Amino acid sequence: MASHAFIHWVRGLGLGIGPGVIALLAVVSTAAVLAWPRPERGGLEFWTFAPHHTRMYEPVIESWNQKAGSDHPDRQRVSLSTLSTGALAQRAQAGFWAQTPTADLIEVEQPMIGRFVAGPIDEVGFHDLTDRLREEGIDQRLNPASFAPWTSRGRVFGLPHDVHPVLLCYRADLVEAAGIDVDAIETWDDFERLMRPLIADLDGDGKNDRYLLGLWYTSLDDLQVLLLQAGGGTFDAEGGSLIASEANARVIARVVTWCLGPGRIAIDAPEFSPSGNQLKLEGRVVAALMPDWLAGVWINALPGLSGKLKLMPIPAWEPGGRRTSVRGGTMLAIPRTTRDFDAAWAFAKELYLSPDLARELFVTNHIISPIMDLWDEPYYAERSAYFSGQRSGLAYIEQALNVPPRSSSPFHQTAMQRILDTTARLHAYAQDNGVHDDQALLPEARRLLAQTEARVLEEMQRNVFIAGGWRR
Amino acid sequence: MSRRFRQHPAWVPYFWAGPFLLVFAVFLAYPMLLSVKMAFHQNAGPRVAEYVGTQNFSWMMGDPLFWTAVRNTAVFAAASVFIQLPASLGLALLLNRPQLRARGFWRAIFFAPVLVGLPFVAILAGLVFEKNTGLLNVALHEFTSLEVTLPRKIGGQTLGVPFTFDIEFPWLQSYVMPTLIISAFWMYVGFNMVYFLAALQNVDKSQLEAAEIDGANAWHRFVNVTLPAIRPVASFVVLLSLIGSFQLFELPYLLLQETAGPNNQGLTLVMYLYQQGFDRGDLGYASAVGWVLAIVLFGFAIAQQVYGRLRGADL
Question: Cβ contacts (< 8 Å) between B16 and chain A: which residues?
Answer without folding.
Answer: 19
